Amino acid sequence: MGHLLFTGWNCRECQTFVEKFEGALGKGKGRKLYAYKVMMAKKMIKFNRDFENFKTACIPWERKIKEVESHFGSSVASYFLFLRWMFGLNMVLFGFMFGLVVLPEVLMGLPYGSIPRKVVPRAEQANAMDYSVLLDFGGYCQYSILFYGYYNDARTIGVFKFRLPLSYLLVGVGIFGYSLMVVIRMMARNSNEGGDGGDEGQFTFSFKMFTSWDYLIGNPETADNKFASVTTSFKESIVDEQENQKDENIHLRRFLRVLANFLILCCLGGSGFLIYYVVKQSQDNAKKDQDELTWFQKNEVDVVMSLLGLVCPPLFETIAELEEYHPRVALKWQLGRIFALFLGNLYTFLFALFDEVNEKLEEEKSIKNATMWSLKEYYANYSSYHNTTDVPPLDIAPADVVRGPCWETTVGVEFMKLTVNDIEVTYITILIGDFLRAVIVRFLNYCWCWDLEAGFPSYGEFDISGNVLGLIFNQGMIWMGAFFSPGLVGLNILRLISSMYFQCWAVMATNVPHERVFKASKSNNFYMGLLLLVLFLSLLPVIYIIMTMPPSFDCGPFSGREKMYDVILETLEELPTFIGNIVGYATNPGLILSAVLLMVLAIYYLNVTSKNYENANLELRKKMQMARDEEKNRRNNKETTNQAMQYLEDLLPNRSLIPPPVITEESALSKSSKVAKHPGAAANGKGVNLQKDVSLASPNPRAAVTRPPGPRGPPGHARGPPPGPGRGRGRGAPPPRR
Amino acid sequence: MGSRASTLLREEEIEEIKKETGFSHSQITRLYSRFTSLDKGENGTLSREDFQRIPELAINPLGDRIINAFFPEGLDREDQVNFRGFMRTLAHFRPIEDNEKNKDPTASEPLNSRTNKLLFAFRLYDLDRDDKISRDELLQVLRMMVGVNISDEQLGSIADRTIQEADQNGDNSISFNEFIKVLEKVDVEQKMSIRFLH
């Protein structure tokens, strides 16, 4: 209306204006349509909001993880977030495997019992249903969709002419491709967010003080959680502050760190040699007669690996105390070292596996020769007996056919057994190491000489590094084994779900928060980096096998072919010729080499530009910080100068009379020297006292942080603690009350 | 209850509240029915006990501070707040709409402007209404937020550190301007707004 009044329209323009917006005014021609549009817009907004709420509610386990986070800090919660992300990844992989490989074979392939590879051999049928055999993944388990050997090699199956062998190969490789893509995308996204930290270093404690409580909380449990998380967040900031203020004796610290690294390298070298020695011994033992060996000699490798896994991590942690890193950095070092240790584990497993595979290949050659020879004999006898050349095929029941040793299924079985073993060991460790320990400490404490809770065993802390590495290595095993055992991914899904519930329960019921609660690094890139490394390590053996090893002659989707990737070549032959030509040109070595060269140059260029951006960013930030400090100093200094100085300052434009900008801390120190005089406290440079040894006020520092806010009185109670002389008034004169 | 509610609230009153706070007609009616449902004594005003009966406020450690904010300063503990006062406090939480910025620039700032929102938050901490947040007031808030899980010495250090970060004129307390400076990067307009359904 104001607009209309001031622009002085004439009558005609007013009329057109009113007609145009008639609908909005609720009268006239366009009313119904406009009202309808408005109603639809409102409904759309409401629908969008509800959908967003629904999407957020669908995120699984969110409340559980928030509970863990509020009691144990963000570093412990980061393990559970990582677990949940892994679950998502595995669901997608399971979808691929199940939908594109297992389901077609089950629905459209031949049923159990029709061909030799799908039947339990006659010799094993007696105990194929035995519980112990099934637990070992033999018997009916072995000849089922769980393993490679069940799948038929017919080029197309069913009504839809689904190409199962091609699908199997593509899914096997596609699993790696998808995982790679997802991991790298996650890393890229994390590194973006990490750069936004910016100036939150400016007002850390003020922010926490004024903005941490969430006034919208209405649920008592949530309030307790929030209470605990506020406490934890303060403790984390205190730890960060302590780290920033530590005394630096550079030379001593450097020497200690070099010493610690040297010791740990010795340990790793020793364990590597021990593993090598034990594996060699077991290989020699395998050639001897099995009955002569003791139990120890038969299981040497397993025993040694378990011992190393139990002894070395605590040893590394003890040595790492020499280094005195920030807890977050120390965690990374610990992860790296245990990773190196576990690599030895992996190496022995793969070594043993390859030995077994080679053995089976030898066996297969002999069986293959024997089978062909007997077939030839059969034909020769038949044609000579009946004097015809039209020989009907051999009619033997599928269970009686002589079968090759099918090494791929054996490999699949090994991976399955390893995963199951891993699950058992993890759960038993948690039950005994955490649960039993907590029960003993809690109940035996009543009749024991010293305080079990504060003293020796006490409650366990959640072992972040061990669990994260376990998760990463487990995923590596899954990646390696998925090609040979399609059922493995399904098993992993079950394992991840049960792990989430079980570990959440165990953490809340049996663990206490770390003594020094530290904030997890903003980006999860360290875990992602390890995962990427493991992904590459598990990609290599599978690709090698696909490219070089010959598939079994009578089991699996690639049976009868020279190499596994021959399926692709066969498919290419069926397509029109020009596609074949294109592929032929594309695989020309010259073309591939130039493409690789181009990519290397692009990577180098992008690397250099990103470094430049980082530098520019840092410079800008420094400039902003300097400007802020100058302003603060100027404001502080203005109060102390008198009139004359002020007048002089205003005259001289270059402000040369102002003392050079002092470091903020020193000027703040002069202002806050009054503040820091706690009796008997050591006042250090920043004027804030944060002694390292001052722990919680409560007598037992290791009690779980579950003390909820004290009971508020009945309605009508006075508001809050009365502002009487609190313990905070340790200074000389209390501030004047107005 | 419905008819009674509308007869007790006259049109002129609704208009006045609308002008003062910016709420729409339907919002005011709905908030009035909430007001009457809280008013157990049925005398047209709310006391502190009425507020404490709300379960969500009762479990909130800082709930007493929120209740405090409804009662204007200067009165003693036996005071009551009428509907006008109730709406005036709630108006601080109305979302800021864009077209409000084009209104008459000479009128006083609306109750839900950024400065007024921050002033509301400031008054939650400044108990004695002296326009400064002193170290003791910070300590009280801290003790409410973390209880006994952190030692008093560390709490004292946190309070000192907070003042050191925020204080610019060196008086060892946080004035309203310094408070504004601390929170200048926080999206107060969005965080301190509640969608009152129209």
Automatic annotation (TrEMBL), chain A:
Its main location: membrane. Belongs to the TMC family. One of its GO terms (molecular function) is mechanosensitive monoatomic ion channel activity. It is found in: Membrane. Residues 708-725 have a biased composition (Pro residues). It is a multi-pass membrane protein. Keywords: Membrane, Transmembrane, Transmembrane helix. One of its GO terms (biological process) is vestibular reflex. Residues 669-738 are annotated as: Disordered. GO terms for cellular component: plasma membrane. This is Transmembrane channel-like protein. The chain crosses the membrane at residues 85-110, 131-151, 166-184, 258-279, 334-354, 476-494, 526-547, 582-606.
